Amino acid sequence: MGLFGKKPLKIGLIGLGKIAVDQHIPSIRGNKHLELVAGCSPHTRPEGVKAYPDMDAMMTAHPEIEAIAICTPPQIRHKIAKEVIAIGRHVFLEKPPAATLGEAEAIKALAAAKGVSLLASWHSRFAPAVEATRKWISEREIKSITIHWKENVRQWHPGQAWIFEAGGMGVFDPGINSLSILTRILADAVMVKKADLHIPVNCDAPIQVEMDMMTEVGFPIRAEYDFLQTGVQTWSIFIEFDILRETDAFDGRHRTRDRRTHPDQAERSGICRPLRALPRSDPRRQVGCRLLTAAHRRRRDAAR
Fold first, then answer.
1. Which of 32, 106, 286, 304 maximizes the CB count within 10 A of its CB?
2. Phi first, then psi: what are they for 78, rounded to 5°?
3. Of 120, 201, 162, which Cα lies nearest the Cα of 17?
4. Which positions are annotated as active-site residues?
5. By three-state DSSP, how is residue 32 classified?
6. What pLDDT, on the 0 to 100 scale, is given for residue 241?
7. Looking at residue 253, what is its pLDDT?
8. 9-123+268-289 and 126-259 agree in CATH topology
9. What are the residue ranges spanned by the domains of the chain?
10. Is 155 helix (H, G, I), strand (E, B) or coil?
11. Cα–Cα distance for residue pair 4/278, rounded to 1 Å
12. CATH number, span 126-259
């Protein structure tokens, strides 16, 4: 074992869509501690990957697979995770870990009972600037935070109709990354106070959201999410603090006020770091902050 011993951890992928091809496959291949054995998808066959129509076929051909990364839409992750845990394999879940908080808690309980490791991917927390910003915030009195997470759904999610179906999260699919960063850089709890969700006709998830939150210590947080942004794409968190009402901003990779930047490192590559000290037999489970799987469920409109 690479992370737990001398040999690389043998990984299988379930779901070979855009996120698997763009992020998971290159990240696994770029990590000497990991070995991509095969993947499965009823539709996709990426070049250079041994691909099978379903998990049963993949595991029959490659019983040596030790851990499985589930890269499907969130609506079916609970069912798949249950099947993976049942055969005693470790599980990596794309964000969010499930379509609902109840499903996420059920996956956690199943992994604990079976004694396998479960890692929920809040990959944006591993962006280079996050830990530096967390320390920076801890040394200041924050007055407010504003989040602008705005992108063009046609550019970043072409053909992904599931994203606007029940459980698909809509604009919260990318927006949840800002919440994962937010709850990492702040020491205090974050509470949702109000949310306006704009849902297109014949859709079940929002295309635009304005959300007001507040921390335990009482400063406000305003978040604006938009899937209709054209031109410059925006992924920013603005932090106002007490010294002459200065502001700082960052997008996970860059801090702007002092003009310092961090290398454009792959977030998912950093996800492996917490596993280095984790014994293989330890059923460590990281299902993530409840806010991230529950904040958007103001109605059934945006059921990761």
1. 304
2. -60, -45
3. 162
4. 95
5. coil
6. 85
7. 55
8. no
9. 9-123+268-289, 126-259
10. helix
11. 7
12. 3.30.360.10
Locate the DSSP E strands across the chain.
9-14, 34-40, 51-52, 67-70, 90-93, 118-120, 142-150, 190-198, 208-215, 220-226, 234-241, 247-250, 285-286
Based on the number of CB atoms within 10 Å of its own CB, is 236 exposed (0-12), middle (13-18) or buried (19 or more)?
Answer: middle
Question: Does domain 9-123+268-289 sit in CATH 3.40.50.10490?
Answer: no
| Cα gap 223→195, rounded to integer Å | 9
Q: What are phi and psi of 238, to 5 degrees?
A: -100, 130
Element (H, E) at 240: strand 234-241
Give the model confidence (pLDDT) of 49-86 as tens digits.
999 999 999 999 999 999 999 999 999 999 999 999 99
Whole-number pLDDT of residue 247: 55
Would you call 37 helix, strand, or coil by DSSP? strand
Residues 49, 16 contacting (CB under 8 angstroms): yes
The partner residues of 254 in beta bridges, in order of sequence, read: 261
Contact 303, 100 (CB under 8 A): yes
User: What's the CA gap between 174 and 122, in Å, rounded?
Assistant: 11
- Tell me the one-letter amino acid at 209: V
* 262, 248 Cβ separation under 8 angstroms: no
Higher-pLDDT residue of 198 and 299 is: 198
Q: pLDDT for 76-134, tens place per residue? A: 999 999 999 999 999 999 999 999 999 999 999 999 999 999 998 888 998 888 999 99
Secondary structure letter of residue 228 according to DSSP: B
294 CB-near residues (< 8 Å, 6+ apart): 101
Distance of CA 130 to the CA centre of its chain: 14
Tell which residue, 19, 71, 67, has the closest CA to residue 40: 71
In whole angstroms, what is the distance from residue 132 CA to residue 188 CA? Answer: 17
How far is residue 147's CA from residue 32's CA, in Å, rounded to a whole number?
A: 36
CA distance 58 to 147: 41
Q: Distance (Å, rounded) from C-alpha 94 to C-alpha 120?
A: 6
Residue 196: beta bridge partners?
Answer: 210
Kindly report the number of other CB atoms within 10 A of residue 75's CB atom: 18
